[in-house]
Fold this sequence. Notes:
Number of domains: 1
Strand order of the largest sheet: 1-2-3-4
Number of strands: 4
Radius of gyration: 15 Å
Distance between the termini: 28 Å
Strand content: 15-25%
Number of helices: 2
Low-confidence stretches: none
Amino acid sequence: MPLQPVRLLTDGCRSVSRQPAKDDAEAIMEILSNPSVVQHNPSDLTTELEDVEALVRRWQGRWKRHGFGNCCVCDEIPPSTTREMMAWTGRSPTARERGGF
């Protein structure tokens, strides 16, 4: 069961950070297929939806195993309208959290 979204308030801008869902793959691909976005981490560049869907499944697996992971950051506009994904954030488990130590 997904955790509740985290609301982030910054200088009048409202955004929500939430677990990734399968339906987020296209929005994530739009970000990852932009060379200027991934210029400092060019290995993230992808143009294949299938690769991004696999990435989303890995992120969901981390949430399931560890209770945390990458999040989708969305505009929080009036609740009656659609939230548009702006970015993602989060962290991967450390070796200790994965049981490596």
